[in-house]
Amino acid sequence: MKFTVNRQSFIKKLNDVSRAISTKTTIPILTGLKLEVTNNEITFTGSDTDISIETTLRADDENAELNVEEAGNIVLPARFFGEIVKRLPEATMTIAVKEGFQANITSGAAAFTINGLDANSYPHLPEIESDDEVTLAGDVFRDIINTTVIAVSNQESRPILTGVHFTLAGDQFTAVATDSHRLSQRKITLPTPATETHDVIIPGKSLVELSRMIGEDSTDVKMRLAENQVLFLLGDTSFYSRLLEGNYPDTSRLIPSESDTTMEISAPTLLSAIERASLLSHESRNNVVKITLKGEEKSATIFGNSPDVGAVEENLSAISLEGSDLEISFNPDYLKDALRSFGQSQIKLSFTSALRPFTLVPSEDEQNFIQLITPVRTF
């Protein structure tokens, strides 16, 4: 195996695949990067059994400057190899594997030799052949992930809640996540209805890595589902993830259908106020912020305090406030995460009682995006 390639183009592909490579694995070969070279392309593969990523650098890519002298394959230690490639002195580099599994890496006056492994020992990636495919614009899919993954659980005691629950029925594509303290749900209407119904749970960690790979200028993301795997296609890159097994709880019953008090406000305005209040609440043992709503007076006030530091009180500039008087306490970090997902939009908060979950929805699209937060009992 021998080829010469532009180093920056190579590093970009290497970085994508490295997201799936872990130094902590019970299968030693998975700490390595698999390179498979044909006459006109290099295929990079990385996996930690939960996530697998495969991407291709093609000779017809002008920036790649790829020249293959001899085809072949090898598995190289990902961490050392990556550090070497990033520090080479010239714009191009040459990698050659002669007899055995030793790779010679040269660039300018620098020359490295590192030991590799037999690529035939590398586990095969799952084969996902599905006619049913969901296609979404990259920015839309990234937004769905980023607005729901904030609510996944970090507790392994209930593994099913560490994932995002995706359902596909007709033209309705729904994503929901909850850690039992908060919930986030997004709905999208697909331009082309699906021919099959799907109900899967994708690990939150997988989705975070996928979101980072979807660039600002990304094209469409294609999603294919199999029995225990999901495949996302992003141009020349394939992103595989295992699915979580089990039944996701019925979250629809958690969302209140009625409310006694509603407040409309700019998301950035409320976020700024909560950030100020949480400066003090974070110094307190229970980290709680309280909001008092007075329907007749149309006033909303936020309180935060720490017995050791002090207190803060701030009147909110709400666009509208209607309904019964209410005093409710909550974890400010949950509310900040929820508010950031709305960006610059105006939102509507709906409350039922001091001990019942309250909801946040964008004023212009109340049906397709909802955040829910469970209050904290303070008495």
Automatic annotation (TrEMBL):
Pfam families per the record?
Answer: DNA_pol3_beta (PF00712), DNA_pol3_beta_2 (PF02767), DNA_pol3_beta_3 (PF02768)
Q: Where in the cell is it found?
A: Cytoplasm
Domain DNA polymerase III beta sliding clamp C-terminal as annotated: residue spans: 253-376
Database matches in InterPro entries: DNA_clamp_sf, DNA_polIII_beta, DNA_polIII_beta_C, DNA_polIII_beta_cen, DNA_polIII_beta_N
Q: Name one GO molecular function term.
A: DNA binding
* Residue span, DNA polymerase III beta sliding clamp central domain: 136-250
Outline the extent of the DNA polymerase III beta sliding clamp N-terminal domain. Answer: 1-126
Q: Name one GO cellular component term.
A: DNA polymerase III complex
Does the keyword Phosphoprotein belong to this entry? Answer: no
Q: What is its main location?
A: cytoplasm
The alphabetical list of record keywords is:
Cytoplasm, DNA replication, DNA-binding, DNA-directed DNA polymerase, Nucleotidyltransferase, Transferase
**CDD domains named among the record's database cross-references:** beta_clamp (cd00140)
Describe the subunit structure: Forms a ring-shaped head-to-tail homodimer around DNA.
Recorded family membership: Belongs to the beta sliding clamp family.
Protein name as catalogued:
Beta sliding clamp
Which lineage ranks, top first, belong to the organism behind this chain?
Bacteria, Bacillati, Bacillota, Bacilli, Lactobacillales
